[in-house]
Design brief:
alpha/beta; Spore Coat Polysaccharide Biosynthesis Protein SpsA, Chain A; 2 domains; seven-stranded mixed β-sheet; two-stranded antiparallel sheet; 9 helices; 9 strands
């Protein structure tokens, strides 16, 4: 692995960090942390490089801290001098990274992703496993930079962090035109078009307008101007609703295909994390109290994760 750098980023866990030092002290390693981290007690090997990131002035996507992961990874990648890189987290530890190296150099046209939370097809769109991400430095830089650009635009409704990474790389490779039509199609992929409901809505609106106009005509001479204006305003809102509803229906009917399976197979490969024992991995659901730890015991099948990119589910 002489032509490969290990990039560790995120929040430091001392147990994991000590294991990285113990087993990878002779490797090329970059540690990318935030200025809020206390590193005073850490005995970082002299051949490792430390990158300290300024805390971002603006948070773009706090869910899963995906913006923090992207920024610290991009800054770490800028310091990588080798052709290949394996990115992992500082609150996790993995053994046998030579297996990751072998897989990525054998699949040089793909990004290697961990099986941990590389979700089965159909659960989430473009969802990779971000516990380990490996490949050519140029390709990881491309993926993370485009993912950050997508987050900056703030146009997606999803709060799934891993989606931004998988989608970011495929957009970067040019297989998806990330335009308004695609964005709408992805955001409303699961919204169903119901012709009967559309007709019922229009009919109800028509009946409501007819009733209001009928009231105005019949009682026009005796109604106060304010009441007439109130009825007309009600009609105006109904008409605006119909126009907006019609535009929504037209957009739903014109959605493009956003299925990810074929493209994910084209650009990603999976490493089963249970080949990397002993390991320590973690997941936080909402806050620190909800954090769970996995020590050589992550069940890919139970967690609805793929171990092979060609799995059919």
């Amino acid at each position: 692995m002489k032509d490969c750098t290990i990039l560790l980023q995120g929040k430091i866990n001392k147990e994991c960090f000590d294991l990285w030092i113990k087993n990878y002290s002779n490797n090329l390693v970059i540690v990318s942390v935030w200025e809020t981290e206390d590193i005073s007690e850490l005995k970082i090997p002299k051949n490792w490089k430390l990158v300290i990131n300024d805390w971002p002035k603006k948070r773009y996507k706090k869910d899963g801290n995906i913006d923090l992961q992207i920024i610290s990874t991009i800054n770490g990648l800028r310091n990588v001098k080798t052709d290949w890189v394996i990115k992992a987290r500082l609150d996790e530890y993995w053994s046998n990274l030579d297996l990751v190296y072998k897989k990525m150099t054998s699949n040089s046209n793909k990004i290697i992703s961990s099986s941990m939370y590389f979700r089965k097809w159909g659960l989430y769109d473009f969802h990779i496993g971000d516990k380990i991400i490996a490949g050519k430095v140029s390709e990881l830089s491309l993926m993370f930079n485009v993912a950050f650009n997508i987050i900056e635009k703030n146009v997606l409704t999803t709060n799934i962090p891993e989606t931004y990474l998988g989608l970011g790389y495929i957009v970067a490779k040019g297989d998806i035109d990330f335009n308004e039509k695609f964005i709408y199609s992805l955001n409303y992929k699961e919204t169903k078009f119901d012709k009967k409901s559309s007709l019922d809505a229009v009919k109800s609106a028509n009946d409501a307008i007819k009733t209001n106009f009928s009231t105005i005509i019949k009682k026009g001479n005796s109604m106060e101007i304010s009441k007439i204006n109130e009825a007309l305003e009600h009609c105006k809102k109904i008409i605006e609703y119909c126009i907006n509803y019609n535009e929504l229906v037209e957009k739903l009917k014109s959605r493009v295909d956003v299925s990810d399976k074929k493209l994910m197979k084209k650009y990603f490969e999976i490493i089963d994390i249970n080949e990397l024992k002993p390991y320590i991995a973690t997941r936080k659901f909402t806050d620190e109290a909800s954090r769970v730890w996995f020590r050589n015991d992550f069940d890919n099948k139970k967690e609805n994760c793929l171990t092979n990119i060609n799995e059919k589910n």
